[in-house]
């Protein structure tokens, strides 16, 4: 797994930094001179996971490329909250074109740089889950298949948040959104849907595919850094809780992301050329319910009557992930 | 930017003009809370403070931190029963930090490297008599001397140290260590009169401005047990004193120790060391009710000492000791069963408690005695002005000694321990200093505790599997085992770095890292962080992800918040707009998350404007309201 | 160098001379020969570091061009018909961002019914996209317009669409003269973007603009497009020095003394000119006005060219359903008060014959031409289908019915 073990006990690789650590071993976010690719004054909601994830990713990419980076952004929350005229929060060369074309725009940028003999400048594209798994999937698949030299980052908050929390192809089963209301026999989003985009990306056989969350900064940074050592199409899928859309407290953004991983619902792994090469194992196993309870979008599973049938079905998804990716450190005691 | 296309292309970082701090309803602040280790320490130490120094390899700085409170790090590092570790929050995570072992490491380092302390205070010309060169007396003398007073310590013993020398066996506290730490106090300029028994207190006190009586509980308590001829019975205090003096009593091969406290353990273990092959402790209750500390008991058992649980001695006759079996009643008291058993013993050592010899105070005007203890006020002053008392001879503990005591004034039992005595000495010094300077002594105000529930323990790393077992073993063995020695530097460092720094920022950079708005400024090593309230939206992530619980959210002033809403959201022109927003406690951005970061989890996701529209409205309304940027 | 060459190949040669740096492409007839030729040029290394990218769709192709252009790469692509429509969102975006992409549109009808043959429905559907639209009358003009398009686009930071009739031009082998590389290099300097993604000078491109500035942004785009009308003749002059051929926003033909002038775009101008020649010989005072720049629309030039005409006929290869002519509206605005007829012709590849044009013009000059005429419309077929539809709700698919009727079958 990516991320260096640190010989350090009080606070180790889980924290952002520490005064006791060799600066070289601290996370990029601990650096007082970090790029702050997304700077203050943006209009993201309080506790926005996407704003946080974007800064984590871009700062890491800036670090890895020595600042030789251009960024393409799909339409979505991230774009809207960062660049309302007359202000922009970006401190990197940044281009927003459309909702569904970020992969292609980025591939075009990479091609232009190659054509100009400026390949040392790297291209990163970023989009929300809607821009990635739904409207942008055609372009993304093309980018993968051509193996264009782009790192594509999906900030997955599991619905169309910018337009008011409608269901996307990445919305998990049973979640309430504005278009999957919590009414009827099977409240919330239906089961058996959604797209496993990391798996789709892997099926393209591209050099690198990884998942990460805003709850594990070191892991995220290591993956971005590793991705930047490679050329060709790379895909990074980052889980970014959305307090507004998930109905979670703004202070719980990282906690929720952590529980997503620790419950097994969001497997964190990496793969090269279509094969899984590393898995971030569960450190402190959390129950699925612990994760769901923090989120208003699942409240209908507990009130007015507890829906054990649905909870069991969600739990089965977690168990499936745990089995599929070997998420437990000691599977024999599971 | 004039050469760039209008509006669609923008200069980088220009959003700094947008002060999102106006969205905030609650604001994060940095706080320092009292860690449980400090809360628990009877000596008034704040272990976290000096562990912090150790973590940075600042061993001397750490030692000096201790020395501001406790002049006996090497002693306390050996003999303390470390309530700090019992309270340590890390104990709820894996295993408490080995605070005591680190303290011993620091104390030993100081002796090895010859670190000394000096008093910077100008001489006051005031003279203080300290009676008793035990831990309380020497601690008081040390602190008084640091405050610039002229101090004389008088003790009837051959050597200074009191119970540290005559009560605690050398295998637990090597005498060279004790000597070194006492010598450091004497070297400060404390006059030490040994073999000086104070009998006429008023006469001796005449030359002094204040007196501190800390003579300790030097008498072994006796119990009435019918004893026939030839029975060899002595008390543990006497026995341990003679062992310490190098004149151990002849106890024979079989020794019975009566009692269940730490002294009983010391006596039994010492008996083994002076030749007994068979040492049996007779105790009337069960193991879980034993007052001796678990570590002492287990070490005693390791050394081959046996315990007769639920037993009392009813008769001693020659080499025969009659023991009656007991049972515990519903309230946990031992009740006789009428079943008897005989043990053979060459000697019986009574370790059933200690008493103070308070005869020197009995004739002093105004000094009140309560049974075996001296009555003192919260400032440790007796009823006689200028005469203070402390250590084992008072039942209350000084509130001046440590905030720990202040915080736990009802909860903590006043134990007769070296650590407690050191704290008493420091408290007395503080009170005497105030008395001499003619001002009231001020108790340390209790501070808010840094409880376990405030910590975000996710961030504390599990020790790597390859390192942890060895270190755990080293920690366990070395804590009390003089043969092996204390922690070495690497293990001390390891141990210190296990500290969770409860309630105190240790610059882990989490707040700096997790802020989605980059509203935390990192000020540099040792300087901590600063919140830029121009941009902080009050999401609370920094507080939630602070491992140490050293941040918290506090409400913005209501009026200021209302004004911001008023100005930014509707320009004050929409009739009822302000009331609507105030009543809803919704966020100023219309339909966004609620200000506190709590969202409408249950009520269904509200129909809302798209973000685009929302932000346009916001900006328009700001313009209307004349909110210039 | 003059040679007999297929239109598509000629355009590919012209584009190659412009040293494009990124060519994303997606296949759609009838533009495929252009990008095929270019892919070969790239593969052989003739175009240096130029990147040819096989896009996954036209939407992707134009998006690739957007990214490339914004990163300082001279970008070119070609499409037609459905492909152009699939690009629609990106077209507006490229124009809004002011990216000087050049694209060939091999004009083709739009389905349904699906039809691969030429008309102007595709390009006309994107006339409001903010792209400059230039229409070629023949392959030589197509070649010259491409050279001009790159220069114009990059100078004004606007995307330019060069429209050439599918099959009629793209697949026609004609004599075409191509300038040499040195001449083109002198005419077209390296691309200097007005804004570019560059770590050395970071900017945010593509901000969200609200009501407070959106009108201004749009107005500025309008002004910038109008500047084409000023710059094009000037640049055309420069190009003429290289090619010896003069382009302009309009091309009048025998308009002097013409009582009736036919306005048209694209390859139909050739047949029209032949027809006009014949009619002139017969003493009928007719002329032709070719519109090369349809967007921006050259109102002044059109008004000037039509100043002597009493009657205007706009021959259109597309129309707006429920209204009629598309170009006609602009022509009317240029010449208010002048009688203006719309003739819709050549839809979906139907040949526009000289005979039909003759008849139509004869009608026009004798004031027998309807305001809106569908040239060579099979009236009986249409009437039969209308009757059928009126009689039965489930009358079946119109296209199939019409085909059946045309083959003389009975239903």
Written account of the structure:
Chain C: This is Pyruvate ferredoxin oxidoreductase. Chain C: InterPro entries: PFOR_II, Pyruvate:ferred/Flavod_OxRd, Pyrv_Fd/Flavodoxin_OxRdtase_N, THDP-binding, Transketo_C/PFOR_II. Chain C: Residues 258-354 form the Pyruvate:ferredoxin oxidoreductase core domain. Chain A has helices spanning 49-65, 77-82, 102-115, 129-134, 137-146, 197-203, 217-229, 243-246, 253-262, 288-293, 308-325; strands at residues 69-73, 94-96, 122-128, 150-156, 208-213, 234-239, 269-272, 275-279. With 334 residues, chain A is an alpha/beta fold. Chain A has one domain (34-333): Rossmann fold (3-Layer(aba) Sandwich). Residues 1-8 of chain A have low confidence and may be disordered. Chain B has four domains: 19-32 and 504-555, Alpha-Beta Plaits; 36-116 and 448-496, Fumarate Reductase Iron-sulfur Protein, Chain B, domain 2 (Orthogonal Bundle), CATH 1.10.1060.10; 127-218 and 356-436, 3-Layer(bba) Sandwich (FAD/NAD(P)-binding domain); 221-352, FAD/NAD(P)-binding domain. A five-stranded parallel beta sheet of chain B has the order 5-4-3-6-19, covered by helices on one side. A five-stranded parallel beta sheet of chain B has the order 8-15-9-10-11. Chain B has a three-stranded antiparallel beta sheet with strand order 12-13-14, with no helix packed on it. In chain B, helix 6 packs antiparallel against helix 17. The two termini of chain B are 18 Å apart. Residues 397-414, 464-484 and 559-629 of chain B have low confidence and may be disordered. Chain C is α/β, with parallel strands linked by helices. Chain C is 43% helix and 18% strand. Chain C has 15 helices and 16 strands. In chain C, the strands form four sheets. In chain C, strands 10-12-11-14-15-16 form a six-stranded mixed beta sheet, sandwiched between helices. The longest helix of chain C is centred in the middle third of the chain and has 33 residues, at 211-243. Chain C is globular and about 65 Å long. The model of chain C has no long low-confidence stretch (mean pLDDT 96). Chains A and C meet through strand 1, helix 2, strand 2, helix 3 and helix 5 of A and strand 3, helix 3, helix 5 and strand 9 of C.
């Amino acid at each position: 797994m990516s991320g260096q073990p640190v010989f350090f006990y009080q606070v180790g690789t889980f924290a952002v930094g520490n005064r006791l650590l060799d600066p070289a071993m601290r996370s990029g976010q601990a650096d007082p001179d970090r790029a702050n690719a997304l700077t203050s004054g943006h209009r993201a909601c309080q506790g926005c996971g996407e704003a946080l994830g974007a800064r984590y990713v871009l700062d890491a990419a800036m670090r890895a490329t020595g600042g030789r980076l251009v960024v393409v952004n799909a339409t979505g929350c991230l774009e809207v909250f960062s660049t309302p005229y007359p202000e922009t929060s970006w401190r990197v060369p940044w281009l927003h074109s459309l909702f569904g074309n970020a992969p292609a725009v980025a591939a075009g940028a990479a091609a232009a740089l190659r054509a100009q003999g400026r390949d040392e400048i790297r291209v990163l594209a970023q989009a929300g889950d809607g821009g990635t798994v739904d409207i942008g999937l055609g372009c993304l698949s093309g980018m993968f298949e051509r193996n264009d030299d782009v790192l594509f980052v999906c900030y997955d908050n599991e619905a169309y948040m910018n337009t008011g929390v409608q269901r996307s192809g990445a919305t998990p089963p049973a979640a309430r959104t504005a278009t999957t209301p919590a009414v009827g026999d099977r409240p919330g989003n239906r089961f058996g849907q959604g797209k496993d985009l990391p798996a789709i990306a892997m099926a393209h056989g591209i050099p690198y595919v990884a998942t990460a969350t805003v709850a594990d900064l070191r892991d995220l940074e290591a993956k971005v850094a590793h991705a930047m050592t490679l050329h060709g199409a790379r895909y990074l899928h980052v889980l970014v809780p959305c307090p507004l859309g998930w109905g979670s407290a703004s202070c719980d953004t990282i906690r929720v992301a952590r529980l997503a991983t620790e419950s097994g619902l969001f497997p964190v792994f990496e793969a090269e050329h279509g094969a899984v090469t590393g898995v971030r194992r569960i450190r402190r196993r959390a129950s699925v319910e612990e994760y769901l309870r923090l989120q208003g979008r699942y409240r209908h599973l507990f009130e007015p009557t507890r829906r054990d049938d649905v909870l069991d079905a969600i739990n089965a998804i977690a168990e499936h992930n745990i089995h599929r990716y070997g998420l437990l450190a000691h599977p024999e005691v599971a | 930017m004039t050469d760039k296309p209008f509006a669609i292309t923008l200069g980088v970082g220009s959003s700094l003009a947008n002060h999102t701090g106006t969205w905030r309803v609650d604001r994060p602040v940095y706080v320092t809370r009292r860690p449980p280790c400090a809360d628990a320490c009877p000596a008034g130490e704040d272990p976290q403070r000096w562990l912090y120094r150790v973590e940075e390899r600042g061993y001397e700085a750490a030692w000096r931190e201790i020395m501001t409170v406790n002049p006996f790090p090497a002693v306390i590092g050996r003999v303390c029963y470390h309530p700090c570790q019992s309270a340590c929050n890390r104990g709820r995570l894996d295993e408490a930090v080995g605070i005591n072992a680190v303290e011993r490491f620091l104390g030993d380092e100081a002796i090895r490297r010859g670190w000394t302390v000096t008093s910077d205070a100008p001489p006051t010309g005031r003279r203080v008599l300290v009676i008793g060169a035990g831990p309380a007396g020497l601690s008081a003398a040390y602190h008084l001397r640091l405050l610039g007073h002229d101090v004389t310590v008088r003790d009837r013993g051959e050597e200074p140290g009191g119970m540290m020398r005559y009560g605690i066996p050398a295998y637990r506290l090597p005498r060279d260590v004790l000597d070194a730490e006492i010598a450091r106090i004497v070297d400060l300029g404390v006059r030490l009169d040994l073999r000086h028994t104070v009998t006429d207190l008023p006469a001796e006190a005449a030359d002094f401005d204040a007196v501190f009586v800390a003579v300790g509980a030097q008498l072994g308590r006796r119990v009435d047990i019918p004893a026939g001829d030839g029975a060899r019975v002595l008390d543990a205090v006497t026995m341990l004193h003679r062992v310490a003096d190098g004149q151990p009593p002849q106890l024979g091969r079989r020794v019975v120790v009566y009692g269940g406290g730490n002294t009983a353990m010391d006596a039994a273990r010492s008996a083994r060391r002076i030749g007994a092959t068979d040492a049996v402790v007779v105790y009337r209750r069960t193991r879980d009710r034993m007052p001796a500390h678990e570590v002492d008991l287990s070490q005693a058992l390791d050394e081959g000492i046996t315990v007769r649980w639920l037993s009392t001695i009813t008769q001693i006759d020659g080499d025969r000791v009659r023991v009656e079996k007991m049972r515990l009643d519903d309230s946990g008291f031992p009740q006789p069963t009428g079943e008897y058993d005989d043990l053979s013993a060459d000697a019986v050592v009574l370790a059933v408690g200690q008493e103070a010899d308070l005869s020197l105070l009995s004739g002093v005007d105004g000094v009140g005695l309560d049974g075996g203890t001296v009555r003192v006020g919260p400032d440790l002053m007796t009823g006689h002005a200028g005469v203070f008392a402390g250590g084992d001879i008072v039942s209350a503990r000084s509130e001046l000694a440590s905030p720990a005591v202040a915080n736990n004034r009802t909860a903590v039992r006043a134990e007769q321990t070296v650590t407690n005595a050191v704290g008493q000495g420091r408290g007395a010094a503080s009170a005497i200093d105030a008395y001499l300077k003619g001002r009231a002594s001020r108790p340390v105000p209790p501070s808010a505790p840094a409880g376990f529930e405030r910590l975000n323990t996710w961030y504390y790393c599990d020790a790597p599997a390859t390192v942890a077992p060895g270190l755990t073993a080293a920690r366990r063995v070395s804590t009390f085992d003089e043969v092996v020695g204390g922690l070495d530097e690497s293990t001390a460092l390891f141990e210190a770095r296990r500290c969770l720094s409860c309630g105190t920022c240790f610059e882990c950079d989490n707040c700096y890292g997790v802020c989605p708005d980059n509203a935390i400024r990192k000020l540099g090593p040792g300087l901590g962080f600063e919140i830029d309230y121009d941009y902080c939206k009050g999401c609370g992530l920094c507080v939630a992800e602070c491992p140490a619980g050293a941040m918290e959210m506090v409400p913005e002033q209501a009026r200021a918040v209302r004004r911001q809403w008023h100005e930014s959201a509707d320009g004050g022109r929409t009739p009822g707009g302000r009331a609507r927003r105030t009543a809803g406690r919704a966020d100023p951005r219309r339909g966004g998350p609620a200000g506190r970061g709590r969202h409408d989890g249950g009520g269904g996701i509200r129909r809302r404007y798209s973000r685009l529209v929302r932000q346009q409205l916001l900006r328009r309304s700001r313009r209307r309201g004349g909110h210039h940027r | 160098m003059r040679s007999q060459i297929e239109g598509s190949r000629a355009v590919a040669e012209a584009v190659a001379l412009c040293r494009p740096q990124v060519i994303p492409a997606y296949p759609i007839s009838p533009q495929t020969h252009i990008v095929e030729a270019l892919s070969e040029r790239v593969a052989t290394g003739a175009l240096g570091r130029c990147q040819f990218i096989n896009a996954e769709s036209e939407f992707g192709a134009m998006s690739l061009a957007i990214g490339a252009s914004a990163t300082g790469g001279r970008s070119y692509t070609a499409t037609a018909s459905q492909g152009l429509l699939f690009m629609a969102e990106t077209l507006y975006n490229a124009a809004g961002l002011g990216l000087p992409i050049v694209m060939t549109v091999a004009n083709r009808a739009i389905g349904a019914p699906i039809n691969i043959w030429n008309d102007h429905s595709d390009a006309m559907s994107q006339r409001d996209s903010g792209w400059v639209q230039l229409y070629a009358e023949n392959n030589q003009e197509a070649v010259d317009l491409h050279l001009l398009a790159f220069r114009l686009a990059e100078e004004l930071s606007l995307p330019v669409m060069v429209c050439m009739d599918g099959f009629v031009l793209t697949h026609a082998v004609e004599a075409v003269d191509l300038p040499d590389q040195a001449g083109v290099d002198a005419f077209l300097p390296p691309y200097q973007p007005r804004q570019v993604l560059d770590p050395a000078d970071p900017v945010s491109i593509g901000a969200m603009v609200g009501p407070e500035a959106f009108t201004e942004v749009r107005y500025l785009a309008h002004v910038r497009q109008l500047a084409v009308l000023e710059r094009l003749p000037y640049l055309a002059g420069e190009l003429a020095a290289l090619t010896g051929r003069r382009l302009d926003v309009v091309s009048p033909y025998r308009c002097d003394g013409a009582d009736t002038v036919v306005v048209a775009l694209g390859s139909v101008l050739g047949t029209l000119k032949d027809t006009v020649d014949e009619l002139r010989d017969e003493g009928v005072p007719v002329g032709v006005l070719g519109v090369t720049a349809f967007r921006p629309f050259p109102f002044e030039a059109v008004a000037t060219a039509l100043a002597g005409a009493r009657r205007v006929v706009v021959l259109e290869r597309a129309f707006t359903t429920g209204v009629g002519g598309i170009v006609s509206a602009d022509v009317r605005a240029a010449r208010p008060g002048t009688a203006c007829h719309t003739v819709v012709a050549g839809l979906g590849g139907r040949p526009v014959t000289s005979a039909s044009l003759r008849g139509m013009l004869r009608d026009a000059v004798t004031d027998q031409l309807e305001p809106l005429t569908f040239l060579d419309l099979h009236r009986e077929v249409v009437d039969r289908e209308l009757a059928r539809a009126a009689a039965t709700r489930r009358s079946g698919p119109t296209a199939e019915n019409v085909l059946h009727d045309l083959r003389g079958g009975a239903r």
